[in-house]
Design goal:
Largest sheet: 5 strands, parallel
Order of helices and strands: HEHEHEHEHEHHHH
Helix content: 40-55%
Number of strands: 5
Strand order of the largest sheet: 2-3-4-1-5
Shape: elongated
Length: 206
C-alpha cells in the first residue's frame, strides 16, 4: 500500500503489542484507499477479513457469521454514513447491539467517507483513524501525468485517469467550448481552468 506511513507504523506497533482496537473507524475521502488499507492490515496481522455493506440484512449476516466463526476475523462495514446516515440508522443501531457484547474473535472496522454522519453513540464506541493527504511523491506512484496531478488528489481518481487518454479528452472538451463559444464553461468542469490553453510547447496553462 502506498502512503499512510504514520498510520501503518501505528498499526504495526498495535499488532506487535497485541493491542488492536476492537472497533476502528477508518475515516477518509472517497478514493483514498480504505479497502487497500484493510488488505494491508489483514496481511500484516495475519487476520482474515470479511467485507459487508450498509444494509441491516448485511449487519445481521455479520452477526450470524461471527457466531459461527471460531477464528479471529475483521468484520468490515462500508458506507454506513452514506446519504447523511438517514437511510442506514437501522443498520447502525444493529451494529451498536453487536458491539454491546462483541465476540472475542471479532474486530469490527467501519469504513467512512465522513464519520460525522455516523450516530454519535457509534462514533464514541470506536477509535477513529483519519487518513492523511497524499504527497506529490506518493501520488506519482499512480500516474506520471502532471496535469492529472494538478487536478486530482486521490489515488483512485489518478488510476482512472491512467485508463483514458487525457490529451484526447481535453481536445474534445476544447472543441465543445469553442463550438459553444462559452470559454467560461471550463470553470464548471472537473478539469477546471486547466482545459485551456496549450502554449507553444504544448503545455497547458491556467
Amino acid at each position: 500500500m502506498i502512503g499512510q506511513e504514520n498510520i501503518k507504523t501505528r498499526f504495526k506497533y498495535l499488532i506487535e503489542q497485541n493491542r488492536l482496537p476492537k472497533v476502528t473507524i477508518i475515516n477518509a475521502p472517497k478514493g483514498y484507499g480504505k479497502k487497500e488499507f484493510i488488505k494491508w492490515l489483514s496481511y500484516e496481522s495475519n487476520i482474515p477479513y470479511k467485507l459487508y455493506g450498509n444494509k441491516i440484512d448485511e449487519v445481521r449476516k455479520a452477526i450470524e457469521d461471527s457466531q459461527n466463526e471460531f477464528t479471529i476475523q475483521f468484520y468490515v462495514f462500508e458506507g454506513l454514513e452514506q446519504n447523511n446516515g438517514t437511510q442506514n440508522k437501522n443498520a447502525q443501531n444493529a451494529i451498536l447491539k453487536f458491539l454491546e457484547e462483541p465476540p472475542q474473535n471479532a474486530f469490527i472496522i467501519l469504513l467512512c467517507n465522513d464519520y460525522k454522519y455516523l450516530l454519535p453513540t457509534l462514533q464514541n464506541r470506536g477509535i477513529r483513524v483519519d487518513f492523511e493527504g497524499y504527497s506529490k511523491e506518493e501520488l506519482h506512484y499512480f500516474t506520471t501525468n502532471e496535469l492529472a496531478l494538478k487536478i486530482y488528489q486521490s489515488p483512485s481518481d489518478l488510476i482512472k485517469v491512467n485508463e483514458i487518454n487525457l490529451d484526447e479528452l481535453l481536445t474534445v472538451t476544447n472543441k465543445i467550448i469553442d463550438k459553444l463559444d462559452l470559454a467560461g464553461i471550463c470553470n464548471a468542469l472537473n478539469l477546471n481552468t486547466y482545459v485551456k490553453y496549450k502554449d507553444a510547447e504544448g503545455k497547458y496553462n491556467k
